[in-house]
User: Which sequence fits this backbone?
């Protein structure tokens, strides 16, 4: 969340009559399906311009820039599941080829930061419907201008009658219907966008997202998860999770966390980037052991750097409930790979359901090198060049009868896999160097050995 002015506001926007989330399935589908049509039309125009002597590189750059404009304008306007998909894409831009990532990067980051806000009258309508006609009695102040806007709702800054500063998360009217509509169309959209991503498996990632996005529409589930983590980490020296004050299915009120977005350290000195990144990735691995919850959305907009040097964590809509912590086989398998015990790794992957066909131990070891390299050394450097090299290597293994076609992600590993891959992407965007193996030794069951010097 970002800092915003406070004060009771009752202004009516001139565009109050428009819907915040278009609920018509036909209307939303038309916008989504229109994206590939627009890309195709621009490609045709570009071909014609090249035919008549226009510079090919300049035309290609203009086409990509125009495609980016249309894609993110439509996703941002629709919000709902479509906007969620766009935000998911933004996390993986470090894995895209540079010629595609460059014109898209600014717009991708815009999606990470905000979406067009809904009128204050609609926010008030949701608050009234969820908290009652006398909803204002709960607050001494509230700013109905949003401090932050996201895919399924927006956040307002306010103050309870006891003086507590709070973040009031209000779901967009029609969000549930919009999400249901979007998820029916997301496969068409991802199929159309896949050729633009340099081979990144957007389709597979989006399929996993679709399973979980529907859970995020119910704020009672989010409130339960956030409360569980906040209670477990109360007083923690490195992490701050806001306490939940009140909630309904479409409204969630919790303590306000003041801080800068994690991504703001991108241009800061290495020591500052490394410290922020270390806290970020530690929280992801520590959550299951300390609170029984894995924060399943490594989107950097959910992490704030507070003035007293802590990491504030918000948005618990997407989580994995892991009361026993991260799966022990996961740590054991990575340890086998670190030890170059390919046969033990193959056996373990089969037992866990990761291997679906005949594959050699050596093929697997080569395929999983990106997951293993950071755990093999005391200090590992995460940057865009390394991430793109790994993506290119993995993508080359996705042809017919290649190793990638023989592997599976078991359902209970889906969110873990997403959190891991997303975190690596964020670390590469931040360009950091840190002792990743130490985090695994401390928080990943099955990874540490008796010979390790641990905490």
Assistant:
């Amino acid at each position: 969340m970002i800092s915003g002015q406070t004060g009771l506001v009752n202004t009516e926007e001139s565009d109050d009559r428009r819907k915040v989330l278009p609920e018509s399935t036909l209307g939303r589908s038309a916008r989504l399906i229109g994206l590939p049509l627009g890309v195709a039309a621009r490609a045709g125009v570009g071909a014609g311009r090249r035919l008549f002597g226009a510079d090919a590189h300049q035309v290609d750059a203009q086409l990509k820039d125009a495609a980016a404009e249309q894609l993110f304008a439509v996703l941002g306007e629709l919000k709902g599941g479509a906007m969620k998909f766009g935000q998911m894409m933004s996390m993986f831009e470090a894995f895209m080829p540079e010629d595609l990532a460059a014109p898209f990067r600014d717009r991708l980051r815009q999606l990470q930061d905000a979406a067009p806000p809904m009128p204050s009258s609609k926010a008030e309508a949701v608050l009234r419907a969820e908290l009652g006609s006398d909803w204002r009695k709960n607050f001494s102040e509230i700013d109905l201008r949003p401090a932050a806007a996201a895919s399924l709702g927006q956040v307002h800054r306010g103050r309870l009658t006891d003086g507590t500063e709070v973040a009031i998360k209000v779901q967009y009217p029609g969000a549930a219907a919009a999400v249901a509509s979007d998820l029916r169309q997301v496969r068409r959209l991802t199929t159309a966008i896949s050729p633009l991503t340099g081979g990144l498996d957007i389709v597979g990632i989006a399929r996993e997202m679709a399973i979980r996005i529907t859970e995020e529409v119910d704020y009672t589930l989010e409130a339960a998860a956030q409360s569980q983590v906040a209670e477990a980490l109360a007083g923690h020296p490195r992490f701050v999770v806001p306490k939940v004050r009140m909630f309904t299915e479409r409204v969630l009120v919790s303590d306000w966390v003041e801080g800068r977005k994690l991504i703001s350290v991108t241009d800061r000195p290495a020591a500052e980037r490394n410290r922020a990144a270390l806290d970020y990735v530690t929280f992801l691995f520590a959550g299951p052991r300390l609170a029984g919850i894995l924060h399943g959305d490594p989107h950097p907009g959910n992490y704030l750097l507070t003035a007293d040097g802590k990491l504030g964590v918000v948005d618990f809509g997407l989580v994995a409930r892991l009361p026993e912590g991260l799966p022990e086989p996961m740590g054991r398998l990575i340890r086998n790979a670190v030890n170059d015990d390919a046969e033990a790794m193959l056996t373990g992957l089969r037992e866990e359901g990761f291997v679906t066909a005949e594959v050699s131990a050596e093929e697997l070891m080569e395929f999983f090198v990106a997951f293993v390299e950071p755990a093999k050394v005391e200090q590992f450097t995460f940057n865009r060049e390394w991430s793109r090299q790994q993506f290119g290597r993995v993508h080359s293994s996705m042809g017919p009868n290649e190793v990638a076609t023989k592997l599976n992600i078991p359902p209970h590993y889906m969110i873990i896999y997403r959190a891991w891959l997303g975190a690596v992407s964020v670390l590469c965007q931040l360009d950091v160097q840190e002792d990743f193996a130490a985090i695994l030794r401390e928080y990943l069951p099955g990874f540490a050995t008796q010979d390790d010097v641990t905490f």
